[in-house]
Amino acid sequence: MDTLQHSFIGTSPAMAKALQFAARAARSNAPVLIQGESGTGKEILARIIHQNGPRRQRRCVAVNCATLTGELLVSELFGHEKGSFTGADRQKLGKFELADKGTLFLDEIGEMHISIQPKLLRALEEGEIDRLGGRDSILVDVRVIAATNRDLKSASKRGEFRRDLYYRLNILPITLPPLRERREDIPALIRYFISQFGDETEPPVTNISSEAEAMLCRYDWPGNVRELRNVIHGAILLGSGGIIGVGDLAGSLESEGDPLLDEKTLDGAVRKA
Fold first, then answer.
1. What's the pLDDT tens digit per position in 138-176?
2. Rg (CA), the chain
3. Which helix or strand (DSSP H or E) is residue 72 part of?
4. What angle do CA 86, 142, 155 make, to 5 degrees?
5. Which residues of the chain are modeled with pLDDT < 50?
6. Domains with residue ranges and CATH for the chain
7. Which residues, 6 or more positions from 61, have their beta carbon under 8 angstroms from its beta carbon?
8. Which of 80, 190, 205, 229 is the S-S candidate for 132 at Cβ 3.0 to 4.6 Å?
């Protein structure tokens, strides 16, 4: 793919496989379902697919399905007419209309209430939506890319997510691996983030000690690339410049289950003090 972002730096087989699938998906207009833990870069990948696809000249509109519920999410997706509910003092176009001829990214699709899912399925299968309070159906031409940190297949078997919607979204599935499953990419990511944030201090930070790098490579990264980015940024801002050492990482890692992390970061912090 032409465009790569920081979450996808590295050469691990797991990430190479995901990017290979993404490159194929970009050439299509079919729905894409991106699955992966929080912080793995699902929205970044969705935008890369859009930017490399046939709809690149049109908008990529994003909606987080976990932040809105009920009528608010229906209104956000499909729009509403004036007076359709309390507080609807004017007509509003939904994200489907705003993304017409482009891409709609539905983040955390697994959190969408099952009562709303038939409306989404209709939009996908028939290319039609209804605004809240509207009388006429509206034709839309939208490519949908959805993302989730849940196992939607299992959720559909439990009746928590519609099976027909799952199958409709799962035409082009992509799974992003957690950072702990591509540890060989961590050194390259560390250096990328140092290059991004190193100049924010004086003297600038240009490197990391081998001991600190080894510690970061051993860590499990429950927050994935997002957590690594924030840890490096914080170490640069709180450090003394030059090189990131073990002491600069004190308190920034969840060390539960790894007493060696506690011991080394504490020792480093004491030496630095």
1. 999 999 999 999 999 999 999 999 999 999 999 999 999
2. 22
3. helix 70-78
4. 75
5. 1-5, 256-257, 259-260, 265-266, 268-273
6. 6-177 (3.40.50.300), 180-272 (1.10.8.60)
7. 95, 98, 99, 102, 103, 104, 105
8. 80
pLDDT at position 226 = 95
pLDDT of residue 89: 79
Residue type, 203: P
Give the span between the Cα atoms of 267 and 164, in whole angstroms: 55
pLDDT above 90 covers a percentage of the chain that reads: 75
pLDDT at 1: 46
Question: What are the tokens at 172?
Answer: 């082009």
Q: State in Å, rounded, how far the first CA of the chain is from the last one.
A: 46
Residue 179 tokens, joined: 């950072």
Q: How far apart are CA 124 and CA 226, in angstroms?
A: 31
Quick one: tokens of 228? 């690594």
- Bridge partners of residue 35, in order along the sequence: 148, 175
pLDDT of residue 257: 45
In three-state secondary structure terms, 203 is coil
pTM of the model: 0.86
The residues near 143 (Cβ < 8 Å, ≥ 6 apart) are: 29, 30, 31, 50, 53, 55, 102, 103, 104
Residue pair 25/172 in contact by the 8 Å Cβ criterion: yes
Which residues neighbour 14 within 8 Å (Cβ) at sequence distance 6 or greater?
Answer: 177, 181, 182
CA 89-91-95 angle, to 5 degrees, is 125
